[in-house]
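hi!! sorry for the late reply, been swamped w classes. u asked for the two structures so here they r. pasted raw, havent cleaned anything up. first the sequence of the first protein and right below it the tokens
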Amino acid sequence: MPKIKKVSYILAIVLSVIYLLWRVFFTIPWHAHIFTLIFALLLVGSEIFSSFTAYVLIIFRLIRADKTQKLEIPEFDLQQPIPKIDVIIVTHNEEVSLLRKTVNAATFMDYPDKSKVNIVIADDGNRPEVRELAKEYQVNYVTMEKNKHAKAGNINNALEQLDAPLFAIFDADVMPFSNFLTSSVPFFTENFAELEEDPDHTKPIGFVQTPQSFYNADIFQFNLFLQDAVVNEQDFFSRDVNVLNGSNGHALFTGSNAVFLREIVDKVGGFPTDTITEDFELGTKINSEGYISIATREPVSSGITPVDIKSIIKQRTRWARGVIQSCRNMHIFTNPKITLLNRIILINTWLYWWSFSRRLIYIAAPLLYALFKVQVVNANFWILMIVWAPGYFLLHFVLGDTSSNIRNERWGEIQETFFAPYLFIPVILESIGIKAKKFKVTDKNVKFSIVDKLYIIPYFIMWALTLLAIVKLNYGKWGSEIIVGSVITFWLVMHFINLSFCLFISMKRDINRKSELKVKLW
């Protein structure tokens, strides 16, 4: 990384910290009405936590820039024993036509010795048609009766009947590419050789997570006609943030298309059954035992992502609740087995699910002032410009630079705004102990109804209030009055743009096709 870029990164953090100190000590209206004070504290708290997540990303970029850029997939060393591997395809009630694609793709995976690849369909529904599918493709079939532990129970049941030193996990809708095994297993074979040569200075690999990628347009790409202009909204985490986590040895497991070392999964007790995000918790347990995890950048599998609002909201609600459950189960703030670096990654992940509540607070703050003259920040305009503006714009320039070419920050704010009205309540409920225990498989079939049109309501209300606030704040004002109110206007306009995108997304685009629309994977 060039020296001038490093300096700009550090300067952005320094200026931002100065601004936050000023906010905490000089701008909170301590003598205001209790409602105003509470909101003011929520606002400054949101700014602090948002800045923390930004600092983590920037600092990780600084210390791991070269390592992430140089991540290369090792070649198979044919002088080393080629390990056996079980490939587990997990299915609950998905359509057989969808499952067929995944099973068919799995049979075409390359491997130096294909006799050592054991493909298994784990069907907790005990369906005759899935059993027949397994016979057709000459793969193994494992079933169970009355599964009480959802996906985790299904996988654990399959593992009890398997014994390969490595195993891969695939959801029913995720098709592996032919190079999946050759892009993941060599990390283990190389690690085995290093452990044998220098066990005192080599950490064992617990799992390798390949990116989540999708062959259909997501809800943002599809409804905004941007299939060829932007990448899938999950790419920023899978192919950027998680790769960065992996460069520190603590990649997160995201549920599918990953390869595991069997011994460590057995050591931690298998897939956790006390959470609805068993993937996140399993990865954390593995890291806590001193095993590292790696995330690769290039997609080697492809699945289906939901494109209707109801399904995508249900999916994200489950992820949000599950991560909070798992963070509580793992005691991420106090667990002595979690290293400092891993603790930072986990706390950052936990804070991510609070970003949607913060987004609503950011939207509400300028509305309160413009519409009701509720001032939650006590600050002189010119002092604000001196203390806030340099750090804000430099920090956001740096964040744009650290986001690589996968997703820029503005697009991230639009996505946060879209999910915010529907995720903030589940996050709060889960955090105070009102749990969601039932695992619900995300329905990938496109199903629209009249109810889907109601999802537009919160976006429209916030959009209309923001437009009214812009007009009311600036109507009839001239010169210095416009300048003094420019910061509030700036935030209102930014939120108005984000909410306009949300309106277009929630209006939904008509689907007149029977098969999924293919998009570029990267």
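now the second protein. again sequence first, tokens right under
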Amino acid sequence: MRHGGQILSDHLKRRGIRRVFSVPGESFLAALDGLHESGIDNIVCRHEGGAAMMAEAHGKITGQPGIAFVTRGPGATNASSGVHVARQDSTPMILFVGQVARDHRDREAFQEVDFRAMFAPLAKWVAEIDQTDRLPEYLDRAFNVALSGRPGPVVLSLPEDMLSDSADVADAPLPGGRIAPDLTEPAMQAIDWLAEGKRPLVVVGGPHWSSNAAEELGRFAAVQGVPVAVGFRRQDYLDNDHACFAGDLNVGMSPALARRMQEADRLLVIGSRLGDIETRGYSLLKPGSDSPAIFHVHADADEIGRVYPAEMSLVCTAPAFVSALAECPGRGGDWHDWTAQARQDYLDWATPRATPGAIRQEDVISWLSENLPADAILTNGAGNYAAFLHRYFRYKRYGTQLAPTSGSMGYGFPAAISASLEYPGRQVVCLAGDGCFQMTLNEMSTAIQHGATPLVIVMNNGQYGTIRMHQERTYPGRVSGTGLANPDFAALARAYGGHGETVDKQEDFAAAFERARAAALPAVIEVRLDPEAISTTATIADLRASAGGV
């Protein structure tokens, strides 16, 4: 006989889970008890949103479901932000939520929420477990759903009395191996299909990728001589120094790459959903149009043809197909000039353009790109500061970019903590805006407690920069709700027990970074920017002038 919390923790251990993230609650005391002697690290966080984001980041960097435990009501609503990230980023994750006792349901008991209704649009699957002896069944299905097809988050609601009840039930058997299909013929068909075009473009993205897949993508691109564009925040899927790397389809993408996507007559889309960001709000490719021809490869059949009709399609994971493509010989497509120009356009876009100020984001990012180890992991949340990172940093290896395609502010710091725990020997750098960092900086004490050592660079311009940019374009000079009063971030880091530095001159940055790295503590470097430098392409004065403002 085992109580439900023990059955749950035993299942997690059998599935190879080594670490979970939680904010404790009385609604799942039995689960905490089960974890007590399991050998599974329980990372106690300071906010459920941070716990869920750490779990999501763990799922993203390991390929196995990230696990989070939160309590009912406010705990679950706080954690929903991380579930949304996992959904849009196609990340395997399981969120366990404590729930009121079964005989209290439907009375609006203390902190009661109908989680099946609440999480239905956010998760792949939501369930509430009523019987202790069915825990292995539900847990097995949760892992399978989180990992299958297009991966994503699963939410399991755990009534507290169900967890504390005992049952004599066997653990679910571990899943067996799967037979990989032979993709040689479909890969050859894809190469022949590309060869029919004069202006082909390969677009890669989505889940399931690995270091080996990134290497095979590079081999395929080199043999075929075809340009490759990567999806939003998937820049580490191909070495950015590869001769066929054409750039990333991000929020502020290169105008030349945007034109290239419009001019392409063949799009081989591997793993990407080809969504809103990659198509600039569905404007670069018009839904319902038959131009360009699309060959769409995705692990989830429901994603193929969802927005854009595919002339040809294949249901399989991106790495499996890329592996087959890498074995194909060159088929004679003459795209040398097209590919060379795509590469030159990327290099031109990645050449720093000067912005105002005594310290400039483009120079900070260029220094990081040139000086960080090739395996350093960079994380970020959302904000205009990220545009500098995307434009000027060159990713050399897979597994070095950790960022939300959902555009969630506050993500970068929890993700950096998760990455530092998983890879304690690697340099982890979080890029954050002053507004972005303040959403989750309370997790600094989580990092201190559990020995994570991320280095945070806070780009402080005293404003919600992205919204200020849009505000100046639309209502020039009428500033409302975008100014920020900020703390001394370096002093705050020291108050938590970390290392803190403040830099306001370019020549001081490198030495400050080296001191922060040598501290072997969670560290913050506050970079005090000129607020006029609002984006990679414009100042506030430029935006006002173009909008006809003062």
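hope this helps!! also noticed smth abt the second:
The longest helix spans residues 74-89.
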